Amino acid sequence: MRIAIVHKDRCHAKKCGQECIIYCPRVRTGDETIVIGESGRAEVSEELCVGCGICVKKCPFEALDIIQLPEELKTPVTRYGPNAFVLYGLPQPVAGKVTGVLGPNGIGKSTAVKILSGQLRPNLGIFDHEVSWEEILQHYAGTELLEYLQKVAAKNIKASIKPQYIDFIPKAFKGRVIDLLRANDERKKLDYYIEKLSLSTILDKDLSTLSGGELQRIALTVALSKEANFYFLDEVTPFLDIYQRMVAANLIREIAAEHPVILVEHDIAILDMVAETVHLGYGKPAAFGIITRPKGVRNGVNQYLSGFIDEENIRIRDYPVVFETRGHESDVEREILMDIPEMQKTFPGFTLKVSGGQVRRGEVLGIVGANGIGKSTFAKLLAGVEKPDDGKVFDTVTMSYKPQYVTPDQDCADTVEFMLRQATRKFDTSYYQHEIIEPLGLTRILQSEVRNLSGGELQRTAIALCLSRDADLYILDEPSAHLDVEQRLVAAMVIKRAAEEKEAGIMVIDHDMYTIDMLSERLLVFDGVPGKEGAALGPFEMKDGMNLFLSNLGITFRRDKTGRPRINKPGSYLDREQKAAGEYYYYNAKETELAGKGAEEE
Question: Is-above-0.85 flag for pTM?
């Protein structure tokens, strides 16, 4: 089965030579396989198209996709119109369980939840008439989804949805935090959530003044406070530290005991801990998406990371994601780039102390710790945005800084390409195109205005912008936020290669343990009391740093047979064994034995 996709936001028929029509072999024989429609954009006949792919290669704006689908995918769940996005498969809400959905952005997860919550009626790919619920239910007769969709058709489903992009909350609701929370306290558990998510200090604040982490906790509280039959939570971890992520995970499991929960999450460690089953999403973003049948979370995540889905016999990625404990070790003798001096920075009610250390050329230094403990302040001190108490400014090395919260100027109409060209003279070099632009997926958005980018597009642009500048030290604050699993993997590879190629030092502040694990050669650990005092300790070798960090957190990680780190269940055999041995993240002699027992506990 073949589908043709025309990306409306990239098709500019008036600005090109209509190469898709000129070079189409079927058009040359007299068929109207491709025409310019009334909308001024190309329209492709899927019945006449032979799938040669010439139009895809010739289009100067990369606005076309011709895709050969597996033969068994005959009837889609829904399609947004001719030559538009098509979705195959739906996740299955299960009472008493958290159902995970793991897949790239733009693969149809939001479309699926609109259908499951009753906001969108699926059309089964039919456009010549309005598809009735009777036709839909007949199509799903004999499947596990039939009973649920019958409730949706009868409008007996009330869904509570936590959106992916939380920056829209202050625009939708004007006023104080407490007013928003009270307006949604349908389950009468507001005080409980305020305590668990540490919201008491921000209740009287205006929503427009909140940070990303505060907005994330507010959004989760609102979603969990509603009385609903079905809870859909889209990315609950961005901007939350590992402590807050653990609290959020426990709250999600509590609500799942009463009602079905579907969780879309790119922090695999948290998804692995919370979900009992997982649906994998694959396909081509903005073109088509396929959602698989449910799998056990361990096998499902491992299949996704390997890039091959066993049951479907489908390869979804050309390369596997590999975790190696030796990846933190380097055989190269690193040259010292700079010394981090002992320093102190005091704000009203908060003090940060830095014990000093060294940054090496060509290494990525991971930085971990709770929110509000001084990590971003430390980055700003090194970047020269803030000055330490003694007033000294670091001018021995040049720095490039990507802030935690990336917000474009809404009055600026600059394109992505213009901004990047302003930052580097190497834009047209093959190295820059192959090592920065293509891996980060920026080719298709180069002509887009920065102010119109989505959260993930904006994050990838900010990473590219930071790495484009000439500097000795690069500091990236939460580069994984709003990126899906594959984008995080690619971003990690781009950052590591940039450190080696530029012989620069790179510091990465992040709360995603997988990102830190893939990136870091050494670790800087922040300890203290959030909002009151913080101390920068290290840098440590990865094993020592993670043991210090995770011991303070009170959780242990193990590695399964693929090398993937996984959170141990609190109080389990592995958890007790590792804590007794002081091994919170890596194994020594007992690695094989513990990994086997971990699989048995599953």
Answer: no
